[in-house]
């Protein structure tokens, strides 16, 4: 079974978010289950090849916006999984992303590659990911290419709005009157909506999020078309790949002596971030993007402002929205002994935090899957999270972490207090919880098997 996995990012070549991790680890897991997966992505200037050697395998010319564009196709092996990856080079649209054309052009190039049989390999299924790939199912239909598609939604918030003129640029002018129009002016469409409508199967990255997105509260305006996909919408929880097991930057707490390792990590971390050093106070942390729509930073901020700052220390590691960066910066200058902030993207520090913190706060308003809670548990830090999406599916309240139901600073604070109380006064329960967290299995195997089942159903004509 041949699957072409389409993504705009893939770790370690290019990673901007969770999709980068999934595009690296899911194909690897699928290939161990006997699925022949290859990945295709644009060859951005920002891509780092990590000593892998690229080989040119072909080129094509494609008209876009009445100009002839030349695309060179390279292949490269993923440094850890050896999965084959196709890189598409084009100086107009792929050196740096150029909205709104880069992704429609990317989709158009993929269709041409298949139509012209440029690869020495033919996929049975195209596995699309997020709005960047949303036009592929529609274009396949348009070209009458009988190839099955599966679209995975990693985040419904980003929908890829495109002006209808893009269809003319791609050479399909008649489509601009056919596709679903979204804005009041009817001049735009959304790539993700087109993907959902035309694909054979939609998946998202946790069962709870799959249910949530069919409601008006979480559907981001697409709930109605998602409800229309009943029977073809599935939630499969992401896994994580433990490629940090052999790192030099942090010792990973493991059974049976996790407590000693965590204590040392914690003292190291407090020293590194110039917090008061000592083990008598619980160390909390937030790691993530400062995205006020999703990540719950406003309730985190409200809690930090209003709570009793003598009973915990807090580390905030994140970047993004500049106003929020300023606010958190201000908090840490005001409370330097309690709150340490590092306003950047730093994976090494992130792992040192997982290794040394007692609790990781994940107050996300919504979270399709979330990888932070899994990494936290893997490093023996208990997650304290909003009960939504993949957080609800991977954390068992009181067993390997804490969940709060109402999305508010008050609920977050109450749950933090509960966790601190257990940490201080019910040491045995806390230890059992960490042991449970350390033993929770987030490997990809189970989830990859579920994708393979869906691929098999697609090919057997069930959908
Ligand atoms: C997006 C989602 C996140 C998910 C990741 C990988 O970044 O926001 O919840 O874990 O994609 O699927």
Concise structural overview:
The protein is of the alpha/beta class and 463 residues long. The chain has helices at 18-32, 102-115, 136-142, 165-170, 175-178, 191-198, 207-212, 223-227, 258-272, 297-306, 322-334, 347-356, 372-378, 389-394, 409-425, 427-439, 445-460; strands at 2-6, 36-42, 55-64, 67-77, 84-89, 125-129, 148-153, 161-163, 188-190, 201-204, 233-235, 283-290, 313-320, 339-342, 359-362, 382-386, 402-404.
What is the third-level CATH name, the topology of the largest domain?
A: Rossmann fold
Number of H/I helices: 17
Number of beta strands: 17
Termini separation: 17 Å
Beta percentage is 15-25%
Structure description:
The chain has 463 residues and is an alpha/beta fold. The protein is 37% helix and 21% strand. It has helices at residues 18-32, 102-115, 136-142, 165-170, 175-178, 191-198, 207-212, 223-227, 258-272, 297-306, 322-334, 347-356, 372-378, 389-394, 409-425, 427-439, 445-460, and strands spanning 2-6, 36-42, 55-64, 67-77, 84-89, 125-129, 148-153, 161-163, 188-190, 201-204, 233-235, 283-290, 313-320, 339-342, 359-362, 382-386, 402-404. 48% of the residues are buried.
List keywords for this structure.
binds alpha-D-glucopyranose, alpha/beta, 9-stranded mixed sheet, 37% helix, globular, 2 domains
Write the layout of secondary structure elements.
Blueprint: E1 2-6, H1 18-32, E2 36-42, E3 55-64, E4 67-77, E5 84-89, H2 102-115, E6 125-129, H3 136-142, E7 148-153, E8 161-163, H4 165-170, H5 175-178, E9 188-190, H6 191-198, E10 201-204, H7 207-212, H8 223-227, E11 233-235, H9 258-272, E12 283-290, H10 297-306, E13 313-320, H11 322-334, E14 339-342, H12 347-356, E15 359-362, H13 372-378, E16 382-386, H14 389-394, E17 402-404, H15 409-425, H16 427-439, H17 445-460
Parallel strand pairs: 1-2, 1-6, 2-5, 6-7, 7-10, 10-11, 12-13, 12-15, 13-14, 15-16, 16-17
Antiparallel strand pairs: 3-4, 4-5, 8-9
The protein binds alpha-D-glucopyranose.
């Amino acid at each position: 079974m041949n699957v072409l996995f389409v993504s705009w990012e893939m770790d370690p070549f290019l990673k901007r978010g969770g999709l980068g991790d999934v595009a690296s680890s899911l194909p690897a897991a699928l290939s161990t289950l006997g699925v022949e997966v290859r990945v295709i992505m644009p060859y951005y200037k920002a891509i780092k090849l990590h000593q892998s050697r690229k080989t040119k395998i072909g080129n094509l010319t494609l008209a876009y916006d009445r100009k002839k564009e030349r695309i060179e196709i390279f292949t490269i092996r993923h440094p850890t999984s050896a999965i084959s990856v196709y890189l598409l080079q084009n100086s107009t649209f792929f050196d740096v992303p150029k909205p709104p054309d880069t992704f429609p052009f990317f989709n158009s190039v993929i269709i041409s590659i298949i139509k012209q049989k440029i690869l020495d390999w033919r996929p049975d299924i195209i596995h699309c990911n997020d709005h960047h790939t949303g036009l592929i199912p529609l274009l396949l239909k348009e070209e009458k290419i009988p190839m099955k598609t599966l679209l995975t939604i990693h985040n419904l918030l980003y929908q890829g709005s495109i002006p209808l003129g893009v269809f003319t640029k791609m050479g399909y002018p008649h489509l601009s009157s056919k596709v679903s129009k979204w804005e009041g002016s009817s001049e735009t469409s959304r790539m993700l909506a087109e993907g959902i409508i035309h694909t054979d199967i939609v998946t998202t990255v946790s069962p709870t999020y799959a249910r949530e997105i069919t409601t008006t509260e979480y559907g981001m305006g697409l709930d109605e078309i998602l409800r229309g996909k009943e029977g073809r919408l599935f939630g499969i929880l992401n896994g994580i790949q433990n490629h940090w097991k052999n790192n030099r930057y942090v010792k990973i707490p493991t059974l049976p002596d996790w407590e000693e390792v965590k204590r040392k990590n914690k003292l190291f971390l407090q020293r590194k971030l110039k917090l008061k050093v000592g083990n008598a106070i619980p160390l909390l942390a937030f790691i993530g993007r400062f995205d006020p729509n999703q990540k719950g930073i406003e309730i985190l901020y409200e809690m930090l402002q209003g709570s009793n700052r003598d009973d915990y220390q807090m580390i905030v590691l994140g970047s993004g929205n500049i106003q929020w960066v300023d606010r958190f910066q201000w908090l840490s200058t005001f409370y330097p002994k309690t709150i340490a902030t590092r306003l950047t993207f730093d994976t090494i520090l992130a792992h040192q935090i997982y290794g040394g913190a007692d609790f990781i706060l994940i107050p996300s308003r919504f979270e399709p899957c979330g990888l932070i809670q899994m990494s936290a548990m893997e490093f023996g830090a208990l997650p304290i999270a909003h009960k939504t999406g993949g957080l609800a599916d991977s954390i068992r309240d009181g067993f390997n972490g804490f969940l709060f139901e109402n999305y508010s600073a008050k609920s977050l604070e109450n749950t933090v207090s509960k966790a601190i109380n257990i940490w201080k006064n019910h040491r045995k329960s806390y230890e059992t919880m960490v042991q449970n967290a350390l033993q929770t299995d987030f490997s990809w195997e189970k989830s990859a098997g579920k994708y393979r089942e869906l691929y098999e159903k697609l090919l057997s004509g069930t959908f």
